[in-house]
Amino acid sequence: MKQTFLFYLLYPFIYSIASLPFSLLYKVSDFFYYLLKTSGYRKAVTLKNLKNSFPEKSDKEIEGICESYYRYLSDLILETLKTLKMTKKEAVERCHFNNTPWLEKFYDEKRSIIVVMGHYGNWEWAGPAFTLSTKFQLNVIYRPLSNAPFEKMMTGMRTKFGTRITPVNLTLREMVASRNEITATALVADQTASPENAYWTTFLNQDTAVYVGPEKLAKKFNYPVVYMNAKRIRRGYYEVTPELLFTDPKNTTDGEICEVFMKRLEKEIKHDPTTWLWSHRRWKHSRVHA
After folding, report:
1. Where are the domains of the chain?
2. What is the C-alpha to C-alpha distance for residues 159 and 164, in angstroms, rounded to an integer?
3. Measured between alpha carbons, how far is 176 from 134 in angstroms, rounded to an integer?
4. What residue ranges in 181-280 does DSSP mark as E strands?
5. Mean pLDDT throughout 178-195?
6. Closest Cα partner for 236 from 65, 88, 93?
7. Rounded distance, CA 223 to CA 153, Å?
């Protein structure tokens, strides 16, 4: 009941934000950044993650990345809300998808694919960009929100241009049911994994538990694995570029897909650390030894 009340209390504000032109949206974001900064939202977590990831950087450099990150986080939150009112034209212009001949060839060959991404750039806008720019039926695997009204709103935003979404616990069932379609099953795969069932690697200078779901699915169905790099070009504009990681996953060794994906994501984060989700408690588990 409280969750429903909170949603209907906030919805007029959310709708008003989503209705703003982009020029005003980013002015609101500048103010929202000030609120984030003064609130100290997860700053201790963010600074710890940055210091452990970049031990070679000075405190001044870490503080600089932290400040840039919170400015970006403010933009990301409001851009996500903007999806509620975003048009197809805006979705394509604001997040350009670089289609490639090999991706089109997979479709022509009726080969479905597995898409892996990180919480890097605007992963919410990457979905519409892919759906509106390719022939694949995109199916995004996600974790539903506990707040039912907000979950309904987010579902509408994520599916408005034809993207499908599937709760993570129904992933295998959905993939089996859609085997006769040409699909792109997308997983944002850098979230914290259960330590007992994870693949462990060194990521950003730290022991890291990696979610093995994408690798298991890719090998089970032998779907090519494609990394989607969602890069911010400038404020409010992104470019999504597909990169083929594996054509025949069934021929890979255990952990190979996880390792290659995490190293590719790490490379992007080191190139521009600002747009990764640093306030997430990514390293809350310790390595489990046999």
Report:
1. 2-275
2. 6
3. 22
4. 183-188, 199-203, 206-210, 225-234, 237-246
5. 95
6. 93
7. 31
State pTM to two decimals.
Answer: 0.94
Q: What is the CA radius of gyration of the chain?
A: 19
Asked whether the beta carbons of 289 and 198 are under 8 A apart, the reply is no
Q: Give the residue from 224, 256, 266, 235 showing the smallest Cα distance to 118.
A: 266
Q: Which residues pair with 95 in a beta bridge?
A: 238
- Residue 22 is encoded by which pair of tokens? 């982009």
E-only strand ranges, the chain:
95-97, 113-117, 137-142, 164-167, 183-188, 199-203, 206-210, 225-234, 237-246
CA distance 192 to 230: 20
- Render pLDDT for 202-258 as a digit per residue (tens, 0 to 9): 999 999 999 999 999 999 999 999 999 999 999 999 999 999 999 999 999 999 999
